[in-house]
Design a protein that fits this description.
alpha/beta; Rossmann fold; binds adenosine-5'-diphosphate; binds guanosine-5'-monophosphate
């Protein structure tokens, strides 16, 4: 029996660039179809293979500024010279429909979301070590050497934010990391405080009295 949630659950995933957030999310979204991905807006150029509207909404700095002024973003930040923001409407609508949403934000974005929506579930993804993180960024081949250096440098202080999160996953073996993320989603859906308890009690007790 699928438990009916009173409201959808918002999951945020953070971790150093190259830790594997997008790789993990893609795999989780394939296996847990009831969870929706919140597509962010960004002013950074698209990487080869990235699709506008699917990976990000790739927009100009002017359009981003308009979005800020119009209050379109739940939160926004500047990261390594580019702007990133979470469109508010998609999240509000899905949560109101009782659907869960998962998103990938940096540590400042996660803190902003937590201050507005304290019931958010936050997950921090770590690489096994910095050497592996470096290899992954080089292997992804989406940034120049200088940008990789900045992202690695940023990673050193980002990791210090770990204690502000609810859960941690070390992404060494991808399949294991995906199983762990799935386990977190499943466990959060079973929380008594999130479900319509009256409905489930009526179902269970009603069945007994018939
Ligand atoms: P992020 O979204 O955190 O910046 P990506 O998902 O783009 O990171 O992953 C960075 C690189 O590391 C990609 O080339 C991806 O294929 C690779 N990668 C991700 N997870 C693993 C893993 N568990 N083992 C090996 N390579 C991985
Ligand atoms: P990338 O350029 O590697 O896709 O993302 C760089 C960083 O921006 C990552 O740490 C990612 O989590 C973060 N990010 C992506 N979208 C958003 C967003 O909408 N808001 C915030 N605050 N950070 C984001």
């Amino acid at each position: 029996m699928q438990l009916a949630l009173k409201k959808g659950i918002l999951f945020v995933l953070s971790g150093p660039s190259g830790a594997g957030k997008n790789t993990l999310l893609n795999a989780v979204l394939e296996k847990v179809p009831e969870v929706h991905y919140s597509v962010s807006a960004t002013t950074r150029p698209s990487r080869p293979g990235e699709i506008n509207g699917r990976n990000y909404f790739f927009i100009s700095p002017e359009r981003f500024q308009q979005g800020i002024e119009a209050g379109e973003f739940l939160e926004w930040t500047e990261f390594c010279g580019h702007y990133y923001g979470t469109p508010r409407r998609f999240i509000d609508e899905r949560l109101a429909e009782g659907k869960s949403v998962i998103m990938d934000v940096d540590i400042r974005g996660a803190a902003q979301i937590k201050s507005q929506l304290p019931e958010v579930v936050s997950v921090f993804l770590l690489p096994p070590n910095m050497a592996v993180l470096h290899q992954r960024l080089v292997g992804r081949a989406s940034e120049e050497e200088e940008a990789i250096r900045r992202r690695l440098e940023k990673a050193l202080c980002e990791v210090q934010a770990l204690t502000d999160y609810d859960y941690v996953i070390v992404n060494e073996d991808l399949d294991l990391a995906v199983e762990r993320m799935k386990a977190i989603i499943i466990a959060e859906r079973q929380r008594v405080t999130r479900i319509d308890c009256q409905r489930i009690m009526d179902q269970v007790l009603g069945g007994m009295l018939e």
